[in-house]
Design brief:
It comes from Asterophora parasitica. This is DNA/pantothenate metabolism flavoprotein C-terminal domain-containing protein. This protein is α/β, with parallel strands linked by helices. The chain has a single domain (about 10-25, about 40-110, about 165-295, about 325-365), classed as CoaB-like (Rossmann fold, 3-Layer(aba) Sandwich), CATH 3.40.50. It has helices spanning about 10-15, 25-40, 85-95, 145-165, 175-190, 235-245, 260-275, 310-315, 345-365; strands at about 45-50, 95-105, 125-130, 140, 165-170, 195-200, 205, 230, 250-255, 275-280, 290-295, 325-330. Helix 3 (about 85-95) links the parallel strand 1 (about 45-50) and strand 2. Helix 3 (about 85-95) packs across helix 9. Mean pLDDT is about 85; it is low at about 60-80. The protein binds ligand PAZ. Ligand PAZ binds near residues 79, 83, 253, 254 and 286.
Amino acid sequence: MTDTEPASFSAEEYFATQPPPPTLDHDINGVREFVARQAQEGRKVVLVTVRRSSKFINIRGGLIKRTQRAEALLCRWSSMWTRGATSAEYFLKAGYAVIFMHRQFSLQPFSRHYSHSTNPFLDFLEIEPSTDGTSSPPRICVTHEMRQDLLEVLTAYKSVHAAETLHTMTFVTVNDYLWLLRAVTQELSLLGKKSMYYLAAAVSDFFLPRQKMSEHKIQSGKGSLHIEMDQVPKILKPMVTEWTKGEGFIVSFKLETDGDLLIPKARAALDRYGHQVVIGNDLHRRKFEVVFVSRKLLPPLPPDAEPEPVPEQDLEDPVSTTFVETWIRIPVPSSNPVTNQVKEIEEGIITELVKRHDRWIDEAR
Ligand code: PAZ
């Protein structure tokens, strides 16, 4: 470790000082081809970012050193990371092409239904011995109860595969994520208003810059380890103004454990970054309740019209004249697994976003 002071980077300084991942060019060529094909077919394209987070600082293999792809993760909470994969499926269903940029080992669209920990795939299969007494091998079948469920998922999966509307990309470190995000955004921005950015990744707040990584393995025998991490740069502002040139429909998420903070923090983010929607979710209620926070759209005034006077109560609370909140709720899931709901809040989120994105495209015409 060096003795350099902790820093807070601007996005520009970050990209000027941190090295790009070695596979960046290769990955971006794939995105370029994908976007060009979707543009030809007239599809809207959404970038969905997903990043599993953990409460722990994870010093990989006990090493933080320059020569390795080592990362220190520091996040505030722990997630099931289902939102991105589930949302991607609903976007595909709504006719979008999806770039699914996820952290290694996050759940994926379609296969998420059969996660090895919550719904192990092998439990749905049975072995049917050959009945004709010959040497033909036994057959593997899906259990009767799971057949309909699997058929639906498999049909959707195969049709997306055939239409080539899902492009998946993997990253590991925060550094990989930031470089990929910028490069993918720049490619996607060529679609102008037809592009959407759905930033569901819970990105670490702190990272260890390459310059502060130790050259050699850190020796554990020396007692406690002191690490000073730097702040991950805020990239939404350059994303809105430079990378997409104000043309992309950008949706970010705000996660809080204190529900009272959701709306003020979402409004502050909209004010600061100038994007289109912040979806607020309370950590413990995120599966059945979210709030869309956006700026109020004022109808255009005819050239000679006098502006409407602002109602008195709004003058006392100027903020409420600027922002509007829309809640999306589904019934609270039952704890009884038999009557457990199959409805997913992401269906409502995507329906609302598609409506808003279409309006945004129409307004540009
Ligand atoms: O996938 P999941 O349901 O466990 O969690 C979804 C979520 C809370 C990660 C997402 O909705 C979100 O808020 N992402 C951004 C988190 C942040 O503010 O860093």
